[in-house]
Amino acid sequence: xxxxxxxxxxxxxxxEYYGRRLQHNGDLTExxxxxxxxxxxxxxxxxxxxxxxxxxxxxxxxxxPEDDLSxxxxxxxxxxxxxxxxxLSRLVGPEGHVHGIDMTLEQLEVAxxxxxxxxxxxxxxxxxxxxxxxxxxxxxxIADASIDLVISDCVINLSPRKDLVIxxxxxxxxxxxxxxVSDIVADRRVPxxxxxxxxxxxxxxxxxxxxxxxxxxxxxAGFGDPRIVESRVLQTDVAGEPIEFRSVTxxxxxxxxxxxxxxxxxGQLATYTGAFPRCPARFRxxxxxxxxxxxxxxxxxxxxxxxxxxxLAKGFQVTPPLRHFGLFDCAPRPVxxxxxxxx
Length: 343
Hints:
The chain is an alpha/beta fold. The protein contains eleven helices and 13 strands. It is 29% helix and 24% strand. Strands 1, 2, 3, 4, 5, 6, 7 and 8 form an eight-stranded mixed sheet that branches. Strands 12-9-13 form a three-stranded antiparallel sheet. Strands 10-11 form a two-stranded antiparallel ribbon. Strand 2 (97-102), helix 6 and strand 3 form a beta-alpha-beta unit.
């Protein structure tokens, strides 16, 4: 059987699973796609969303950056019933716009039906969301270099062609634009006994990538130096297999001039100004960079560029490179956010 047939069979199964079989996140049988991270951080916005939208939200993390997103044009890959897209639409405000793409018509119908009421609840004159039927591997409705921020919540693992998903993200992002996704990864390559189980694939375990394969996919598509923002264990030892599945939130930017292959020290300092309303005292960029307001912090040249050549520049003062001092000690600190999943 060729790959195209296999892909169509999987897509058909996933449409049935998410469109008809699952009516509520409580219908899930595994622990992966039921985290409450988004609900905890955006409870005020979720309280304004229709119950039908919230009930049909499945996710493994919070793919919503903490900085100022006002006025951005964004894309939510695998937008489902619209929870993340609607929250993002409030964050970008009436001058911004959020596109959602999903292949499951039943989910899209929920998002489209409620979009006008959600806009009114946010105080907007008209919806600033557009929901497209399509595949995340191609996103044909989205023009090249038209997007500032791409998000996705526990969806890339469902794709049979994850390489095409990442290539499409690179295609639609503008220079300086960002990929910010939450997804499920494994501590090893998923064995065939799990990868061939349709139910485990649909519940975001069977199709999960080995973490380092996922990061390599990003690098191969031109996203140099991807950063892990958050990571936590979701499930271990599935169906008799010794394996660990984690939720990770990853961010990476699109630069025309490639980043350094390693963290290089050019004597640069970054100072957070406190400009982001949701982060007045400190801003967490990734799992090993937390910037206190007003405190100059040494950074490698890659981090300096991430903070000065993207939308984050409005919140940082970054000194220019002096000269090369060798490698910069930019190693991640031990992860300390292994909270249990909500199921």
